[in-house]
Design brief:
Length: 385
Amino acid sequence: MSRRIPTGQDVYKEAVQRMRVLYAEDARVVVSFSGGKDSTVLLNVCAEAAEAEGRGPVEVMAQDEEVAYPGTYEFWERTAARPDVDFNWLVCGQPMVNLFNRPQPYWWTFDSRLQPSEWVREPPEWATWVRDINIEALTNPTRFPVQEGQRLIAAIGLRTSESRGRMYGIHSSKGYLTKPNRLGVTNARPVYDWSDGDVWKAILDHGWDYNEAYDVFARMGVKKTELRIGPPTMTAEAVDKLDLAWRAWPQWFDKVCKRLPGIRTAALYGKRAVLPDRRSSESWEACFQRTCIHDSPEWIQRRAKKVRDVVLHLHARHATAPLPEVSPCHTCPGNLGSWKRLTLALYSGDPFCTKTGSTGRQAIGFVEPEQFRDGAGTWGGTPTW
């Protein structure tokens, strides 16, 4: 892959021009909005492009996840009140990952089996309740109809500076547009080349409204490059902010702890709460057997055994030595070529196969919602949120 070469162009003007091309061709553009900084600049870029082409108001799709840092849904409400925005506030009741609860990896937003008083908050009365559970499916031709020959575009705030995999995706698609997905929807990524500095400079220069949770975390010492407002239960990286959230919004934090088991423990112990505890005299193989099989919930046991057997089989095809303890065997496919890698990947069960990669997807697949709740259905493909 070729290295990135600065062009000296204004990324804001470039992003607006990319969207103007789509509005000018009469594509129907729907902005995916989360209330984070990336979707904030994306929305404002699209709003300017739509106005320049006489295509306002800009259509917005937002999936309510019930639990987000205070300030997020207040920002949604202010955005929905903008005259240049047509805001579609969707409530799906979808399963979300709770990485801090090993026995039950999923929780359901606005759970119909609970009383609304048990939710962390209630959505606005004018929100639309839908049955889709994959965020990819929320922007679809049924909800946003198009005329014959007209393209349906989902604008997303993807930036390559946050992930090497995202950069590879841009190179693979040869630009900011993807091929149509299974629903016939094309993704547009007009801010893909923005840095963190570009994002905050644009917000400051234009005086755009934004999520006030960023100010709270910044005052508490979170670095600019780590200022991310995402679901607090999805990844191990989010655990560092839980202790800060406990101190910043104690009443909100108590509600979240009652709603989602494991959150308080994660805030107290940090990443240790989601990592296996290898004993001083224990090998990584023994640690895997104890923490991922013998002392783990049944659903994690099944997945750990299957992935272990596949990895050992693949390793035995090219090596007579045992699977390495720590340094991975680089001939083994994927990133699971040692007992340490296996233990770290399978300790949480990895319901979305983010750590086990293609090896895990082939061996165990994604954990379907139906497995933990009758009638919850399946992801219908790769789970997204």
